[in-house]
Design the sequence.
C-alpha cells in the first residue's frame, strides 16, 4: 500500500463504517462506501485512482437515468428549477470526482483531499436525499387527504 494511502487509513475506516450504516438505495451512500473500501485495499495510488475513475464513471450512469426521469416528473410539490439545480450540482460533483480520480492516479496529494471531500459530500447528499424522500412523500400524502 502506498505511504499516502496508509495516512488515510483511519479516515477510510470511518467512511466505510458510516456509509455501511446508512446504506440504502441512494447512490451517495454506495459511492462513499465503495470509495472507503477501495482506499483500504493494499494498492498503489495509480490503481486507486483508476478504480475511483471507474466507480464515478459507473455511478454517473444511474444518476443520469435518475436525472432524465426526475426532470420529467411533475406534481411532486417542488419547483422544477430546484430539481434542475440539484441535478446540475450532482453532475458537477461527478465531474470534480473524475478530476480527483485522475489526480490520484498521477500521484497528486491534493487529489486525495478532493476525493475524500467529495466522498463525504456524497455521504451527506445521501442523508439529505433520505430526509427529503421521507418528508417529501409524507407531505405529498397529506396533501392528498
Sequence:
Amino acid at each position: 500500500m502506498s505511504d499516502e494511502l496508509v495516512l488515510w487509513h483511519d479516515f477510510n475506516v470511518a467512511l466505510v463504517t458510516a456509509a455501511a450504516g446508512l446504506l440504502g438505495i441512494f447512490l451517495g451512500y454506495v459511492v462513499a462506501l465503495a470509495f472507503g473500501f477501495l482506499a483500504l485495499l493494499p494498492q498503489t495510488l495509480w490503481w486507486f485512482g483508476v478504480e475511483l475513475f471507474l466507480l464515478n464513471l459507473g455511478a454517473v450512469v444511474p444518476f443520469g437515468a435518475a436525472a432524465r426521469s426526475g426532470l420529467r416528473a411533475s406534481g411532486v410539490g417542488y419547483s422544477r428549477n430546484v430539481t434542475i439545480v440539484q441535478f446540475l450540482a450532482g453532475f458537477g460533483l461527478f465531474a470534480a470526482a473524475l478530476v480527483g480520480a485522475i489526480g490520484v492516479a498521477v500521484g497528486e496529494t491534493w487529489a486525495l483531499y478532493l476525493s475524500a471531500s467529495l466522498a463525504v459530500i456524497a455521504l451527506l447528499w445521501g442523508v439529505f436525499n433520505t430526509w427529503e424522500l421521507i418528508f417529501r412523500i409524507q407531505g405529498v400524502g397529506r396533501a392528498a387527504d
Notes: The chain is about 85% helix and 0% strand. Residues 3-144 form one domain. The chain has one domain: 3-144. The mean pLDDT is 82.
